[in-house]
UniProtKB/TrEMBL annotation:
GO terms for cellular component: cytosol; Golgi apparatus. The lineage of its organism: Eukaryota, Metazoa, Chordata, Craniata, Vertebrata. It holds the Pfam family ChaC. It comes from Urocolius indicus (Red-faced mousebird). GO terms for biological process: apoptotic process; glutathione catabolic process; nervous system development; Notch signaling pathway; response to unfolded protein. Belongs to the gamma-glutamylcyclotransferase family. ChaC subfamily. One of its GO terms (molecular function) is transferase activity. Keywords: Apoptosis, Cytoplasm, Golgi apparatus, Lyase, Neurogenesis, Notch signaling pathway, Transferase, Unfolded protein response. This is Gamma-glutamylcyclotransferase. It comes from the Eukaryota. It is found in: Cytoplasm, Cytosol; Golgi apparatus, trans-Golgi network.
Amino acid sequence: LWIFGYGSLVWRPGFEFTSRKVGFIRGYSRRFWQGDTFHRGSEAMLQHPVTTLSFCSQACTWGVAYEVRGEQIAASLQYLNMREAVLGGYDTKLVKFHPQEKDGEEPFLALVYIATPQNPSYLGPASEEDIAAQIVVSSGCAGHNIEYLMRLADFMRYFCPQAEDKHLFSIEEALISILPRLYCRDESLEET
């Protein structure tokens, strides 16, 4: 079984796997439209955006496919069903994964978790500036949401430099423009 990750799974799968491949799926774009009240957020504030996929026939989303075999299959699915489905509100789907390395390998099917608009934690579209402002104030048991955004942007830069992810990088840019203002505000508070 192959499992495709496009959010925190690209750097923290949390399950044992046999191999991994960087690549992409077609027909979806990565969007920070899913709310998280556990991993990167809390019940007190529901506006903690993490990624989901939005259907877009012309788009592709880059990430990592993990191969799990034997006993790894049941263990990884049990872990991911709790992490993504129960706590995150995602549904599963099979998609065609295209490996980055073109060593004669054909695309193959991979399992992916996708949040839908019917999900109670689904936030839907917002401006990159609004999403960045929400990310700045969001943290949960897995860490701060800034880390989530920056690690995902770093993954794209280092492993998929040829790929474009305007939504992700626009949010990162908006977040970076907010941080100096927050830092200056904290310094002025210390002086009083």
